[in-house]
Amino acid sequence: MLARALALLFGLLAVTPAFAAQCGGDFNAFLAAMGREAQGQGVSRGVVDAAFAGVTQDGAVLAFDRRQRSTFQKSFEQYAATRVTKGRISRGKQLLVRHAALLGRIEQRFGVPRELLVAIWGLESDFGTGDMGNRPVVRTLATLAHDCRRTDLFQRELLAALQIVQRGDLPLRDMVGAYAGELGQTQFLPSSYIRYGVDYDGNGHVDLRHSVPDVLASTANLLRVNGWQAGAPFGEGTANFEVMREWNRAVVYRKTMVLFAERLRGS
User: Fold this and answer.
1) Averaged over 88-108, what is the pLDDT?
2) Is the pLDDT of residue 84 over 80?
3) Mean pLDDT, range 90-106, rounded to an integer
4) In contact, 33 and 21? CB cutoff 8 Å
5) pTM of the entire structure?
6) What is the pLDDT of residue 208?
7) Where does the record locate the signal sequence feature (predicted)?
8) Catalytic residue set
9) Mean per-residue pLDDT for 24-45?
10) pLDDT in tens, 157-213
11) What is 76-130+196-265's CATH topology?
12) Whether the Cβ atoms of residue 256 and residue 116 lie closer than 8 Å to each other
């Protein structure tokens, strides 16, 4: 899930606008500038104050970010062998049956095969039962935004995280994620959460931590919005395989997604 987030983040570098807050320097002054930026985009003073209360830089996040190298140094066969396991395939097939009606509705609306959605779900968080990260997202993103290497990019994600709270999708206590600020059962960056999130259970909120309908529909929506062709193949070399770049730019990871979906189909 970390590699996917990093691939998405690097892909956004060329299109991320500049923000007013200056990186480096006094961290509290930086937060104050970000707070003003957020309020200018419709986030209330109350949300800003609550989100930034007591926030300090996270040295572990910076250290982790600096030592990252490509996760996909293994071959496809080596990588897939550790991810597409018999246990995951068995569990995925059980969930295809359990959520058959839900997945059928999502597939009809968004055009994305149910097996691929369940494969993504399994790879990202073991179907919502595995590691979704335990770091406070606001602190993580504020730390990375204050660091001058990719400040515009992470300022954008920090503002999106505040907007998630402002919309009432998740309370601050549930804004917990991984080392790049990814959230939920299929690990959405906050900006993707805002752009692609779908309230599919109809409760008025997009909850990608707890709501399986929201998780699966939002995952399908991300692919559909980026050009997914319903009913078309999605193996390597196809147009849909290229659409999957919006999920992860690494060919090894996308091939693993395809393999997992094929195993869930029984092929």
Assistant:
1) 98
2) yes
3) 98
4) yes
5) 0.90
6) 98
7) 1-20
8) 124
9) 97
10) 999 999 999 999 999 999 999 999 999 999 999 999 999 999 999 999 999 999 999
11) Lysozyme (1.10.530)
12) no
For 211, phi and psi rounded to 5 degrees?
-95, 110
> Which region among 1-5, 32-36, 49-53, 109-113 has the lowest average model confidence (pLDDT)?
1-5
Tokens, residue 225: 């919005």
Q: What would the CATH number be for the domain defined by 2-68+133-189? A: 1.10.8.350
d(CA 76, CA 238): 18
> HEC profile for the chain?
CHHHHHHHHHHHHHHCCCCCCCCCCCHHHHHHHHHHHHHHCCCCHHHHHHHHCCCCCCHHHHHHHHCCCCCCCCCHHHHHHHHCCHHHHHHHHHHHHHCHHHHHHHHHHHCCCHHHHHHHHHHHHCCCCCCCCCEEHHHHHHHHHHCCCCHHHHHHHHHHHHHHHHHCCCCHHHCEECCCCCECCCCECHHHHHHHCCCCCCCCCCCCCCCHHHHHHHHHHHHHHCCCCCCCCCCCCCHHHHHHHHCCCCHHHHHHHHHHHHHHHCC
Residue 72 or 133, more confident: 133
Residue 95, token pair as written in the block: 């969930």
Across all residues in the chain, what is the average pLDDT? 93
Work out the number of other CB atoms within 10 angstroms of the CB of residue 250: 18
Per-domain residue ranges for the chain? 2-68+133-189, 76-130+196-265
Supply the Cα-derived Rg of the chain in whole angstroms. 19
How far apart CA 230 and CA 186 sit, in angstroms, is 21
Q: Report how far apart, in Å, the C-alpha atoms of 265 and of each of 97, 168, 248 are.
A: 12, 37, 22
Cα 160–Cα 164–Cα 169 angle in degrees, nearest 5:
160
Indicate whether 34 pLDDT > 90: yes
Q: Is 207 left (phi over 0), alpha (psi -120 to 50) or beta?
A: beta
